[in-house]
Amino acid sequence: MDEHELGRILKGMYHNPVDAGLTTTGKARKKTMVHLFGIRYSREIQDCGDSPTQTAREITKHAGIPKSYRMDVDRGRLLGEYVTLDDRESLKWPA
Predict the structure, then answer these.
(1) Averaged pLDDT, 48-72
(2) Disulfide engineering: 39 pairs with which of 6, 80, 86, 93, CB 3.0-4.6 Å?
(3) Which of 24, 5, 21 is nearest to 37 (CA)?
């Protein structure tokens, strides 16, 4: 999986968040979805390039979302080392 494909997935999650039982709306929900993206795709982000931080920057660029979300992608990636999701397969967004 490359940065372009990850960017496409992030764009879908950012613009079309599923109702995951969150009580937040708007920007807070989008930020949560960016964190969830980082957790869900932490291995792919880690394996994608030389620097995960640079990879996160490229992913947000390809997703067409504000570059400030790079930090949230990276936070999610770091959390992915410690968090397990109940059902990772159900957390795949259509591209």
Answers:
(1) 91
(2) 80
(3) 5
